[in-house]
Amino acid sequence: MDHKAVNELQDLQYFGEYGGVNPSISDSSTYTFLSAKTMFDTFEGNTEGCYLYSRHSSPSNLYLGEALAAMEGTETANVYASGMGAIASVIMQICGAGDHIISSRTIYGGTYAFLKNFLERFATETSFVEITDLEAIEQSIVPNTKMIYCESVSNPLLEVADIQALSQLARKYGIPLVVDNTFSPLSIPAARLGADVVIHSLTKFINGTSDCVAGVVCGTKEFCLSLKDVNNGAGMLLGSTLDSLRAASILKNMRTLHIRMKKHSENALYLAQRFENDGLRVVYPGLPSHPGHTIFQNQMNLAYGYGGLMTLDVGSLENANALMERMQDRKLGYLAVSLGFYKTLFSAPGTSTSSEIPLEEQTKIGLGAGLIRFSVGLDDDIERTYTLMTECMESVGILNRQVTRATS
User: Fold this and answer.
1) Contact 236/228 with Cβ under 8 angstroms?
2) 151-209 tens-digit pLDDT
3) Whole-angstrom Cα distance, residue 80 to residue 215?
4) Which residues get modified to N6-(pyridoxal phosphate)lysine (predicted)?
5) Do 373 and 364 form a contact (C-beta atoms < 8 A)?
6) Which of 370, 86, 115, 58 is nearest to 206 (CA)?
7) How far apart are the first and last CA of the chain?
8) Helices (H), 200-344
9) 253 and 292 in contact (C-beta within 8 Å)?
10) HSE-up (13 A, CA, CB side) for residue 229
């Protein structure tokens, strides 16, 4: 059981300006210098500990970045105003015109659209490959391949990437492995498993209160400084700056992340096991029936479980919509995108968070119209939640209790 990440987080201490237990919030867009030369040196990137302009950095953003670097086990981290801001900055920093990217086929719809559509404007090509097929990935590598990109647990199909194996393959060809670890903070130590760059949408589990949008890039000091370079840093020049007030808020919420992740995982595993016993088509990495169960188990921090995401295929979009509306009526959660909230959130990704992926491609990767993605909440009585959910399924004709009992 590896508690290293949480211990490092808990060991971080920042005194506020007047001795407060929370660090003071730097509510400034720009910073003063005692000498003109120091300002010049800071612009040139030759001065540590000096703040220039909040688009470059701020004390509040630095505190949050250091906490996230401690969590992931990287040298440092840069925070951004959104997960997509972090993703776009990393990709555009590493890749340019004429370069090639290998990406998992099953990824967040916004990332897919950025790689498939937006980067075409800059003559950057992406090959979308089954991330669990190492042979196919290796066969896709060409001389101008500059990156292998994947999600530790894919959105929304919950495929599990073998980060250690992918890292070995990437290093064999001198290519950086970039991993979006949004679905599994603490559960999967992506950087410690060999990822060169780790990205999170802080909007989700890490913040945990669905009240802001933010992102982070965790990596080496050299790479993170390159992102902030005033002349050619994608993070600096694209301007995806996280507000200091939000950075301070996320830092406070991070202190309960280890408790929340345990409960999210515990509740999701309970529901997944019960639904599978009911004969429903449920996918959850914690189930032995999941194709990536063993891989997840081999690379996980056991204390934090298999994560808070599961999917349920109810056959059709009509069934999915009816069930989600019924569950919301019964106050079991919200029909909403995103994840990591204290209440359960559910959506049909084919028509929401993955709608950027063409229908033909959705069919190829197995993203059915009746698939519901659940971000399981922090319910105290998960057995009650299960009972109420199955009642909702009965009421819309998805689950027949009598048939279930007769066949069990």
Assistant:
1) yes
2) 999 999 999 999 999 999 999 999 999 999 999 999 999 999 999 999 999 999 999 99
3) 5
4) 204
5) no
6) 86
7) 35
8) 221-227, 234-238, 244-254, 257-277, 293-299, 317-329
9) no
10) 13
User: Strands 344-347 and 333-335: what pairing?
Assistant: parallel
φ/ψ of residue 125, rounded to 5: -100, 145
The residue with tokens 């109810």 is 314
pLDDT at 2 over 70: no
CB 337 within 8 A of CB 347: yes
Cα-based distances in Å from 55 to 69, 235, 315: 20, 9, 47
Give CA–CA dist 404/62, Å, rounded: 54
Assign 373 to helix, strand or coil.
strand
Q: How far apart, in whole angstroms, are the C-alpha atoms of residue 66 and residue 359?
A: 41
Distance of CA 373 to the CA centre of its chain: 15
SS3 153: strand
Question: How many contiguous H segments (helices) and E segments (strands) does the chain have?
Answer: 16, 12
Q: Name the CA dihedral angle for 337, 378, 303, 387, rounded to a multiple of 10 degrees.
A: -100
Sheet holding 197-201, edge to edge: 76-80, 215-219, 197-201, 177-180, 145-151, 100-104, 125-129
Return the DSSP state at 242: P
Instruction: Kindly report, residue by residue over 37-48, the tens digit of the pLDDT.
Output: 888 777 766 666
Query: Is the CA virtual torsion 132, 133, 134, 137 positive or negative?
Result: negative
Q: What is the DSSP string of 83-106?
A: HHHHHHHHHHHH--TT-EEEEESS
CA distance 77 to 5: 15
The first and second tokens of residue 367, run together, are 């993203």
pLDDT digits (tens, 9 = 90+) for 84-142: 999 999 999 999 999 999 999 999 999 999 999 999 999 999 999 999 999 999 999 99
Residue, of 33 and 42, whose pLDDT is higher: 33
